[in-house]
Amino acid sequence: MNKLNHYSKDYVAIMLKCLIASFIILAICSKSSFLYPLNSWGDANVYYNIGRGMLHGKVPYRDLADQKGPIIFFIYALSLMFNEKTFFGVFFVELISATLFLYYSIKTLKLFCDVEKIESGIAFALATVTFSSRLFAGGGGPEELSLCIFSFLVYLGIRYWETGIFPNRVELLFLGIGAGLLFWTKFNLCIMYIIIFVFVLIHAIKRREVTRVGEAVLFIVIGTIIVTIPVLIYFAANDSLDILFRLYFYENVFMYGTGLGFLGNLRFALYMQIAKRNFPALAFLFVGFVWMLYSKKVRLFIFSIVTFVLTFILLNCGHPHAYTSMPVMVFAIFGFGPIVDVLARKHIVVKKRQVACIAVLFTLGAYVLCQNTNEMLVAKEDTVQYSFVREMDEGDIKDYSLLYFGPLDTGFYFAADYLPEWRAYVATNQGGTELTDLQYSYVNNKETDYIVTRMTLCDTEQYDQIIQGMTKNQIANVVSFDDFSYEVIKEGSIYDNGKKVAIRLYKIKS
User: Between β-strands 499-508 and 486-496, what pairing exists: parallel, antiparallel or unpaired?
Assistant: First the structure.
């Protein structure tokens, strides 16, 4: 009993260390944290607006359009239940996910190394290389929140592959719940499940334990059903099952792509990884794989490199973004392998003071590396979002309506405390021109009082004059209307993925 209590206390202590590291690093790197005036990442604002809309009776896809799975909207709705006017609830969800990600990553490393007394240093280092990388974006994205599921999956897979310990029924049930959450968030995130399942099946055949795989499938299916039933009930109750399946499945499969083709997408995905903010993450991944070979952990290397490569390819072969590759960061933990080996071989005992110094150094590293920190500790009134809102509030239109024209809202609805009233409240990457056409109709019909956009809007008669001297890329951002009834009243700039972009506020002419 005493041994069991000691075991439990040990892992509670590791969890606490992971929680502290997650809190500090996410406070620096995530725009959802209390150190930022708002989360200005476009994707997070899509989830925020739809999640908030759900609290006011709006239904995803039907009333507010997007192509992501419904679970991310449910998560945001739950996060906003106690306070719709902050991202603090989202930050709390990020904190839980990051803590579990670090915890199961350390448990995975403990299968091969003795990391006692340096867990805090590892937690801070892994959190820094993951959340300060270019893969992270602004905080609150599906890939980031899914890291805890992937680290749990990889831990159980490697544990069975290396030690023969098969997941118990509770672990299998949670694996199924994780699969369900991934499937109804972005179904291509289930790729890693499928790859690891093949490894488990191969190992089970070798060990003559195929019947256990059948049991595993049963419990994983049960876990997936536990997630699926509430999703289907919600959309069925709102008579929206058809639009759920059309937008989430059909359009994502057949109408959502870059036009670059399979190889073109992979080249673009690889190009996005070669960014200076990604170098620490890439270094840990590379060192980890080299360590596996050098220390003759061939089985681990085969499991990890195959899962890593196939996951990267299959996630990025459709429509890659910088954050698309974040799931493969679960393998960065092995970059600490050679460090731990050297400490053990030379009998070096790392003291608490030294671990604290490591934590401080990586915290400073997170601040330096993260692309978001230029927005940290900026007063709300000094942001362009609140500046535009102040202009609208002080105007002569009471209870004004607001439309963000084009992709993607960077926090203007949030700053204005305005719940979008149009289905195409932004134009997303959803297949076809449906949302763009809807946005054009709102402007042509003068349905909105104010427009916020990165584009230059004008009347058809002014178009030729405006585009004179512009580059091809600049011309692509000029949009003309037959009878444009709006005028620019304020201009500013925002940061989009670390780059400064001009933005304008239009008001309807009197």
Answer: antiparallel
